[in-house]
Amino acid sequence: MADSKYITLVSADSLEFVVLREASLVSPTIKGMLRSQFSEAQTGRCTFPEISGVVLEKVVEYFHYWYRNRDREDVPDMEIPVELCLELLMAADFLNLDAKPSLRDQL
Known about the structure:
Blueprint: E1 6-10, E2 16-20, H1 21-24, H2 28-34, H3 39-43, E3 45-47, H4 53-69, H5 85-94, H6 103-106
Parallel strand pairs: 1-3
Antiparallel strand pairs: 1-2
Helix pairs in contact: 4-5
């Protein structure tokens, strides 16, 4: 299962999202989970007990949005509901979505 094209992300309220593995690797946190000796690397299933289903759904949407637009220069803004901004910011922080890629990550 470790080399599957898709992974499953599970929210605090047990909602499951099947995500293209390559798209999810934009998150250094998920990348670390999937390349570790932990069960996530073996099962391809990452559980986030601190992220609600509504927020994780938007995070998954962002992963695919990023993946689709990764080679474009004029990327349109992604719609983000105002009521989710704080929770999305906390999830983005947890998933290290603001991290700058290191030289090691680029190799």
